[in-house]
Amino acid sequence: MIQLDFHPAGRHFLQIPGPSPVPDRILRAMSYPTIDHRGPEFGALGLKVLDGIKKIFKTKHPVIIYPASGTGAWEAALSNTLSPGDTVLMYETGQFASLWKKMADNLGLKPEFLGLPGAEGWRHGVDAAAIETRLRVDTGHLVKAVCVVHNETSTGVTSDIAAVRRAIDAAGHPALLLVDTISGLASADYRHDEWGVDVTVSGSQKGLMLPPGISFNALSPKAIEASRHAGLPRSFWGWDEIIEMNKNGYWPYTPNTNLLYGLAEALDMILGEGLDNVFVRHQRLAEACRRAVRAWGLEIQCADPAVYSPVLTGVMMPEGVDADAVRKIIYERFNLSLGAGLGKVKGRMFRIGHLGDCNELTLMAALAGCEMGLTIAGVPVAGSGVSAAMAYLAATPAAAAPLKAVA
Ligand SMILES: *Cc1c(COP(=O)(O)O)cnc(C)c1O
Q1: Ramachandran region, residue 67 (left: φ > 0; alpha: ψ -120 to 50; beta: rest)
Q2: More confident call, 385 vs 406
Q3: Where is the signal peptide (predicted)?
């Protein structure tokens, strides 16, 4: 057994925006013996998770489960629907949007990258009007897909997916809508069918509270139809054979059985709490976290309050402060992991994850670790973020009111 050199007492605080902490219930479920993936018990497990996961995506159509990280499901979404040389419209919200675009390049697609220039673009969500404008001039319908990230994990900025759908429709354009909600699913409101998404890409290690290793493609009938003519080469990722075998709860290859035990448990937990309650819990913790950041006198990476992420908060450092040095102090002194700034914002900010198996006191511990670490690092803080967050949490009820639709 590898000895991880963690703090000897208490739990490690894994407050990065994925992988998120795996609840004990899920760890225990995954410790059941591995079974025959062609046997009758497996078929029942397969049908259970394939059906349950549809409720999380809010879809009636097939959801593909891959034994792969989220990056694999990105490739599956592109390679099943597109052909070499196809133009795809992507939108630069941050590091993950940029990596998906790089993959499109690597696969022989022609990605066009919309977005604001420089690091400023990494503080805003997708501008649906810019997508509509671009699609209106594409009278020859060369753009085959619009690809956007729902919850940009590198910054803590969400995007309005329903607005992107409306933009495509307003332009009268037939492009497919492909959405990455790898870090949004089961934390932020998401509606695959209602929002008219053709392929939704997601993963296991964020809101679903599982270890890394499972990823998803939720499909639309239009996406399945597109896959019949899509010319990019694919084999492992091909939907058709998987959909066929999934009808009886099986896969064409050996799926990751123990992670599927974990997925079954996660579905019980999330659907047991109620998806709407899960969303309200995330929104409330995120608001408490933002109040802490403001009380410290620091800036939130997301510049548009309408699209604050319920999953994570990006905290910008004052000029001249190295965010990675602050993170290092917090990790070494308090056994607390925070997310690093990536790409264009490397060293400029850190990210506090408040997703998945997170409650009020988990968040308060993380904020206390941050506050102490900022002080030790000599970062001037205006006031106590911990006090501000506590005051908010104490004054607001935890019980979820019915969620209003956030389209
Ligand atoms: C985590 C993440 C990915 C990458 O997923 P992997 O499982 O690391 O391959 C892609 N997009 C977003 C938005 C993510 O949060």
Answers
A1: beta
A2: 385
A3: none
- Residue 123 annotated as part of some ligand binding site: no
Domains of the chain: 13-19+274-400 (3.90.1150.10), 24-271 (3.40.640.10)
* The pLDDT of residue 37 is above 90: yes
CB atoms within 10 A of CB 117: 7
Ligand 1 atom with the shortest distance to the CA of 152: 13
Residue whose Cα lies nearest atom 5 of ligand 1: it is: 70
Q: Is 71 in the pocket of ligand 1 (CB under 6 A)?
A: yes
Instruction: Please tell me the pTM assigned to this model.
Output: 0.96
- In angstroms, the Cα distances linking 192 to 125, 180, 181 are 19, 11, 10
Ligand 1 center to 359 CA (angstroms): 23
| H helix and E strand count, the chain | 13, 14
Instruction: Give the separation between CA 180 and CA 150, rounded to whole angstroms.
Output: 6
User: For 198-227, what is the mean pLDDT?
Assistant: 98
